[in-house]
Amino acid sequence: MSVLLKVDDIKVAYGDFEALHGVSLEVEEGAIVTIVGANGAGKTTALRAVSGLTPPRSGTITYAGERVNGLSPRALVQRGIALTPEGRQLFPSMSVEDNLLVGTEARGAARAQANLKRMYERLPVLAERRTQLAGTLSGGEQQMAAIARALMSEPRLLLLDEPSLGLAPIIVSQIFDWVRDIGATGTTVLLVEQNVAASLQLAKYAYVLAEGLVSLHGPAEEIARDAAVRQAYLGHASVENP
Length: 242
Fold this sequence. Notes:
The protein is α/β, with parallel strands linked by helices.
């Protein structure tokens, strides 16, 4: 497989605080890749950098062979990168359908109705609630709507930030099944997830972030067997450098 996304030695800061200290990673076309790590490790910052929301201070981000540092989030959506942010961030006073249509804005509305039909067929609960205000949906329904909104832009690369956060286990299972299906259709997925065990089962490759650095990376099944990773997520030890 070819590399769709290459992040090379990026440093990202919020004012004087440097959140990423030189992170590098690669995502193959058509793969599901996960980034795991403790709270504050820099996982969300990495996705924000790729999506253009928090441009890196240094280093390079290459997508589909093009250096995309400095491009606006809108320009990146037009190139095929879509982000589902942590906390969903729907427009609560807008209807479910209007929230989904926001996802087509940067791409143009030509395929909006076809994509709506596709989302509603995959998620009948959203079809049933299409006129309901998004803020009145359950947490699981909001997460489904947030992912569907991103998919409305027909992304080549889907960035998912903590899709299981705050959801009941049965809903988490449904979300992960859907992410697996999304990957099976050929969409490349870069997943940040607090549910380490589930994300390592889902992904092909994994990166472990610790204090703004990649401390470990490799095939997800190998990372899942790593004793240091197990200890880290039980709170007994930090992940060591390989």
